[in-house]
């Protein structure tokens, strides 16, 4: 029997995931959808043979929904996740888990109180084959201890709605989660530098930005965030260890020699670069929900990401190095 | 409603596909299996919740089977495919379609007579992203006409059961199918050269071999087949065109600098290299069967592969260039 | 008539340059040498057919010496360079020009007073084909303005005599000169961070270090200095511009596939990596001296390097961001 | 005292070498030149401070000439080389040594009779760092025995004077020499195939061509010669061994990411690709002449190249596989 998933929020990312679940994922089907735009929601529901719910809460409560996918407007994430926990249903929430640290904390507390891990946050990079290879190398200690990480997160361009804080909150947040997972260490400080700007940016955005994080053991991480780089979607992560360096590469399937150049393609956008990671993320989430044992990014991971992005934002606004302090990870979230 | 697939033959490749269908493919489930080894077959059937049939013919006839997957012993492929056609059921047959040209022809004739395309042959390279990029480049004519192809098909090692003819029939047959698809041209001649042998080969195998094919328009293809290359599974395909060269690369996800070397991994085996192609092949087959419009490698493609491998074998045995003549492709198989 | 060069200081680097001048460089010969070790110096002189001088000052004054090469102990550089200026002779001085800012300044003042450019400092990276290609790309503005540079300077290992300050003074000084030449901008601030240390370092050396420089126009430069990286000699310089990134690569002449890896060699040391740059540096210096028009790194460049390394050292010692202020470049040194 | 070189023939390649000797090579100067065009020759002589000789024979005989460089019209090579041998002078002759096998043989016989190795042929690839690395790997036996070589020799374009035979005689001749040196084996057969032609060729040239050579031990070599490939000057040499593959790469000094591509430059022409090899070839020739012990490509190598190209031409004209038979290498030419 397929897992019946209810999807709240059917914008671009929601529709993408609906297609993924119905067309590529084994063992799951979208049984219900909800959207603030009733008309569009109903139309989509009829197209894919799902039931439409005007209210997300009703979808969550419905007995035709085994698990919930939250892809709605960011400020609504918290309430839907809390509602799912209340109904003891598994819930996959696209980042951010909540828009403020406190909201994330409320989810953590509710989940601990419910006594069962139900929440997974949509940090898909952990499912990318490149990051998995990096982690296997780090874990093997073949290169000794990790000392530094040099990272970049580059988008070809962003529109006017993307402002300075989003470089941290929407963009670097992916590095913030995946590098903490890679290193299995928390961050202790954050700094943000503002280099010379590209003329391709707009009034409300300082682009590029340069973030420096330090971990508990002293590993130093630098992350260039450059969201109007023009040339493509380019993700770098070089892990400098005592005996060598292992670095992410943008996989290429063909090489082309023409007009005096020997070239490979640069990914055009995040979908192109991470489509396989998204597919695996959902297949493994569905499998783990059916096995009643979810293992992906937890509510605690979502909370820590929120604490860290908040520190980065403060560092950027004050031009200072900001300490990051976290209470101890609750036993509930330790493997 | 999921497509219910009956699998005939549950050896290594059969079990691999069963896992794929049940664990990764959307919209399909294995409902029935058959194997000459009843005990093992029954055990597997109970494990995956499928019905066991002692006879493949009974599986094909059963109304709990919507479509058939043939992964049995090569000499039995023909009869099961013919039986599936008789029952008007879609059938996916791992290569070879039949062990002799005549057997392939009988399948072609039966399918034409049945009046519906039901047969797909397991040439999975057409679903590899690298070959797809090569084809897009060739089709675009951006580099002008194709003039030559330089290819290699290398396995780390083979056991004693792998003999000289298998270099063509089991190994180069993948190139024979995918390059014909890539170029949309048939072959007109074949030659096989026998270079200096590796000391890692065994008595019954001349390794490496070097195949030269010529197409209708004069494109020359060379294929090195080297199945004891020791270092990994390595597939090359460089398409030399009038204005440039586009070549397959072995995608790498990380690069490693240590001990004086900057390296990437070479694939270890065909599963490692083509796992994504297999996954896509099955998803698209399931989708196309459900849409009643299969588009993958046809019985005619299986027949042409057989004619071509037979010519290569003759060329190798006689040390001469052998002409390849084919009747015109029946309208039935033209798009 | 060949240029007759007198060499002061015949340690490892001195002997290397003597071989280069006598064996590879066109239009020059070593006519005289001087070294504090008279015995070794005399022996070498007789081997290469040169005249030995016990005192560097006498060598400089001799009429068998057209131009002087200073490769002696660092603290003696200043006096020999000043002496050469006094005798109106061209002088090539290995870095540093002088051990303190004041010494560099005295040389600058003496040269200006002498009224003729006579001094060249041994910053050979400007002669590396890779850096030349970077500069051509920057100068072309094809990628728009430069925004950031990400650099690394890695040595396989250093011995106990190499201490913390040397990471800046002996190692990063190469980047400090070549990046200023690349960007044609001076630095305005320096910071040094001290990441987690490698266990391969020793008591007197913090390794690695991470330097951040800012230029007049706001370009931000980060330089990882890691001198016990174990795996090879590895130089990185990625120039991030508004429309793309151009980066140095370690040229490789062959690729090797064996044992599951596809690899190229990493340079083993600076000689291996920059030998061609050294050869070109000397050929062009000899040519330019003969043409009476030297164009390489000037005394002013040596002075600016000294000001910058001093600022970096202060930044490291104080853990703060240190401003770098320079008087205006004298007209004498402007092209 | 510099080696005084007399240059016969001052066309493009002659002038290039004159610049190299006078501007880059240590220990040599052009003292004399000769050219059939007296006016241009005299002008050049006065520019570089050399003596002009109307007759090459007079230049060879002159006591201001220590060694001779023959870069004249191909059909005159033989007589000048023989003349140099007669005068017991070292002579460097650009390929071909002579236009016919017999001419090469006459030089071999004359040199043996003279009793001293005086002749070097201008096969510069042996001095390329890439080929040297290939040879070191082959010689080390680290990858076991060599089994096959896959090569390509591609030029961006050729003019109408370049006809079908030149693909072998002027182009593949470089591979013919360097691969024999690499493998230390002679060839036993040659075949030439004529694939589909590029529309960028002209009436008198079949382009591309595909040459297959076999060596004494059975190593099979394929060489694609494609002289209107449009995209650059591209040299490939992949050495397939029992345990791995080592292949030439076109060294790149920078990588560029822009407009959706990650690219390196392809060499534009043979000068760009092999300039360092030419420089080293001349430096080592000068050094070896001064040491009275030349070690580069010998007259015998020139003779064997001629025998092999003649066999290839016959193979191409007859469409058959042609055996190559050589008398034993005279002891005189064995190391």
From TrEMBL, chains A, B, C, D:
Family: Belongs to the Gfo/Idh/MocA family.
BP terms from Gene Ontology: inositol catabolic process
Keyword Oxidoreductase annotated: yes
Reactions catalysed according to its record: 1D-chiro-inositol + NAD(+) = scyllo-inosine + NADH + H(+); myo-inositol + NAD(+) = scyllo-inosose + NADH + H(+)
SUPFAM superfamilies in the cross-refs: Glyceraldehyde-3-phosphate dehydrogenase-like, C-terminal domain, NAD(P)-binding Rossmann-fold domains
Ranges for domain Gfo/Idh/MocA-like oxidoreductase C-terminal: 135-324
Molecular-function GO term, any one: inositol 2-dehydrogenase (NAD+) activity
All residue ranges annotated as the Gfo/Idh/MocA-like oxidoreductase N-terminal domain in the record: 3-123
E.C. number: 1.1.1.18, 1.1.1.369
Pfam families: GFO_IDH_MocA, GFO_IDH_MocA_C
InterPro entries linked: Gfo-Idh-MocA_inositol_DH, Gfo/Idh/MocA-like_OxRdtase_C, Gfo/Idh/MocA-like_OxRdtase_N, MI/DCI_dehydrogenase, NAD(P)-bd_dom_sf
KW Oxidoreductase (keyword) present: yes
Full protein name: Inositol 2-dehydrogenase/D-chiro-inositol 3-dehydrogenase
Pathway in which this enzyme or protein is active: Polyol metabolism; myo-inositol degradation into acetyl-CoA; acetyl-CoA from myo-inositol: step 1/7
Function: Involved in the oxidation of myo-inositol (MI) and D-chiro-inositol (DCI) to 2-keto-myo-inositol (2KMI or 2-inosose) and 1-keto-D-chiro-inositol (1KDCI), respectively.
Keywords: NAD, Oxidoreductase
UniProt-listed Gene3D superfamilies: Dihydrodipicolinate Reductase, domain 2, NAD(P)-binding Rossmann-like Domain
The protein's assembly and partners: Homotetramer.
Species lineage: Bacteria, Bacillati, Bacillota, Bacilli, Lactobacillales
């Amino acid at each position: 029997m397929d897992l019946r998933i209810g999807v709240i929020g059917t914008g671009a990312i929601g529709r993408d995931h609906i297609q993924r679940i119905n067309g590529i994922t084994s063992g799951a089907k979208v049984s219900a959808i909800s959207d603030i735009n009733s008309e569009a929601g109903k139309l989509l529901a009829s197209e894919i043979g799902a039931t439409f719910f005007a209210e997300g809460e009703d979808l969550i409560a419905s007995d035709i929904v085994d698990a919930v996918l939250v892809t709605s407007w960011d400020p609504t994430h918290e309430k839907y996740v809390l509602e799912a926990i209340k109904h003891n249903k598994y819930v996959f929430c696209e980042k951010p888990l909540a828009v403020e640290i406190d909201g994330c904390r409320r989810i953590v507390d509710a989940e601990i109180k419910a006594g069962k891990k139900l929440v997974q946050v949509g940090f898909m990079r952990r499912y990318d084959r490149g990051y998995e290879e990096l982690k296997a190398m780090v874990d093997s200690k073949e290169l000794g201890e990790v000392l530094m990480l040099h990272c970049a997160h580059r988008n070809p361009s962003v529109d006017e709605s993307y402002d300075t804080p989003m470089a941290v909150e929407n963009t670097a947040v992916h590095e913030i989660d995946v590098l903490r997972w890679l290193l299995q260490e928390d961050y202790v400080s954050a700094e943000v530098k503002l280099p010379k700007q590209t003329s391709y940016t707009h009034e409300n955005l300082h682009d590029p930005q340069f973030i420096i994080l330090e971990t508990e053991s002293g590993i130093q991480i630098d992350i260039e965030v450059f969201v109007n780089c023009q040339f493509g979607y380019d993700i770098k992560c070089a892990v400098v260890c005592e005996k060598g360096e292992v670095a992410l590469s943008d996989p290429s399937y063909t090489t082309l020699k023409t007009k005096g150049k020997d070239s490979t393609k640069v990914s055009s956008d995040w979908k192109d670069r991470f489509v396989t990671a998204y597919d695996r993320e959902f297949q493994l989430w569905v499998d783990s929900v059916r096995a009643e044992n979810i293992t992906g990014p937890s509510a605690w991971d979502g909370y820590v990401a929120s604490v860290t992005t908040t520190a980065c934002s403060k560092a950027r606004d004050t031009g200072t190095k900001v300490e990051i302090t976290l209470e101890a990870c609750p036993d509930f979230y330790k493997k």
